[in-house]
Specification:
Strand order of the largest sheet: 4-3-5-7-6
Strand content: 15-25%
Radius of gyration: 23 Å
Distance between the termini: 42 Å
Structural class: alpha/beta
Helix content: 25-40%
Oligomer: single chain
Length: 245
Amino acid sequence: MPAFLQRFTRRLLAPSGVLAAVLALTAAITPAPVYKGVGWKALTKDGIYSLHPGPYTIVFANATARSKLAPYFKRPAAQVTTSVGVKVTVSSIIDTTKVGVCPARHRIVVHYTYRPIGQRGMSEARGCYDTGDRSAWGGHIRMDSEYWTTKNWFSSKPAVNEAYRRDVAAHELGHILGLDHANVDVNKDGKVSAFECVKSKAGRKPIMCSPNRGNLAVADGGKFTSEYDIPGLKELLKNFSLRKG
């Protein structure tokens, strides 16, 4: 190798070594996006990795959906607005966008439908995401009308029955905003089962527990837990900035 090339090579070694150290230090102090934590998990399997700062608007597929379901989305929408910092508004707008088509950006279309996926008692959230930054776009929530048309669907106690209805609405909204089911192998038997989710000292499970969070305190109906769901949504919101950066 000619001498000048050797010298040139040697001159590059020191600066590149310094650069590597700087990059390593930067990587060490720059937080990475987080996609799961205690009692929550991002809906990455469906392509959603973050929550956009918003605002989001809840609209309705028809007048029946609006009259039946608008009250059930007000509590979780207000909670996301105040506790997460992402404004979610329950409007009176009718939006006839078809289920197989993503609505306008940050619109969540709510439907009132009998067995939307053909299974008894199953509702559905069809989320959309921005293909550039993978943030929650909005989508469609299809609520099973059986919860209202079948007497004592969840419980023979009217207040408990109503609390579970509210929970289902909030649960599906959680999916649209980017949260997956929160079930984990709590008993360490090698499988994740229905209702198997972490529980707080106060006895609360995540609202994203599937198929629901078990024994529900009436006062908690339709309310994201401060221990699990809200921190998860906050982390998804933080992910938006980290992924954009």
